[in-house]
Write a structure and sequence with these properties.
The protein is built from 10 helices and no strands. It is mostly helical and 193 residues long. It is elongated, with a radius of gyration of 19 Å.
C-alpha cells in the first residue's frame, strides 16, 4: 500500500514538470532529461513511471483534463444549490476565464495542438477529449433546444468559439477580448428558432 502513493506522487511530479517545460519551449525540443531535471529526478527514473516522452504527454493531457473537470465540478457545487442547465452565462464565463483565457494552459495547448498535427496518438487523445466535451455540452444544450441535431451543432459551435478565443487571446491582451464578449447574447442568438 505504501508504494502506490509514492508512485502516484512521482507521476504527478513528472506531469507538473512537463507543464513547466512546455511553458519554456516546444515539446519536440523538450528532452527526457529536461523533464527529469524539472521533476527533481534522475532521467532514468522517468522510464520507471512512463514508457517514453510521448506517453508522458498523453498522460499530461488526461491529467490536465481531470484537473479542470475537478475545478469545474467544485465551481458548480459552490455556485448552484441544485443541478441546472438553463441559459446561464455564469458557467460559460467560468469556462472563458478558467480555460480559454488561462495564459499557461492556452500556451501549452497551442503547442499540443501543433504537436498533434504530426502525431496520431496525440491527435486521437485530443479528438477523444473534444468528443467528450461536445457530449457534455450536448447533454445540457439538448435540454433547452428541441432539435437534437441543432443541439449538436450548437455544442460544436461553442467549442469552436472557445478554442478560437483561446487562439486569439494568444495574440491580443486578455482585456481586449474578455469583457467585450457577451456570451449570454451569443447563446441567445444560437438557440433562437
Amino acid at each position: 500500500m505504501g508504494r502506490k502513493p509514492v508512485r502516484d506522487e512521482r507521476r504527478k511530479q513528472i506531469l507538473d514538470a512537463v507543464h513547466q517545460c512546455l511553458l519554456e519551449k516546444p515539446f519536440h525540443k523538450t528532452s527526457i532529461k529536461d523533464i527529469a531535471s524539472k521533476a527533481g529526478l534522475n532521467h532514468g527514473a522517468l522510464h520507471y513511471y512512463f514508457e517514453n516522452k510521448e506517453h508522458i504527454l498523453l498522460e499530461y493531457i488526461d491529467y490536465t483534463k481531470t484537473h479542470f473537470d475537478n475545478v469545474y465540478n467544485n465551481f458548480l457545487k459552490e455556485a448552484y444549490t441544485e443541478p441546472t442547465f438553463e441559459l446561464d452565462s455564469l458557467k460559460y464565463r467560468w469556462a472563458l476565464d478558467e480555460l480559454t483565457f488561462h495564459k499557461e494552459y492556452q500556451r501549452i495547448f497551442i503547442e499540443i495542438w501543433a504537436h498533434a498535427l504530426y502525431n496520431p496518438n496525440v491527435m486521437k487523445k485530443l479528438k477523444d477529449m473534444y468528443r467528450e466535451w461536445r457530449e457534455t455540452l450536448f447533454g445540457g444544450i439538448s435540454e433547452i433546444v428541441d432539435s437534437k441535431k441543432e443541439a449538436r451543432k450548437i455544442s460544436l459551435t461553442i467549442i469552436a468559439m472557445f478554442e478560437g478565443m483561446s487562439l486569439m487571446s494568444s495574440l491580443f491582451a486578455q482585456k481586449d477580448l474578455k469583457y467585450d464578449f457577451d456570451f449570454n447574447a451569443f447563446l441567445t442568438i444560437l438557440i433562437k428558432k
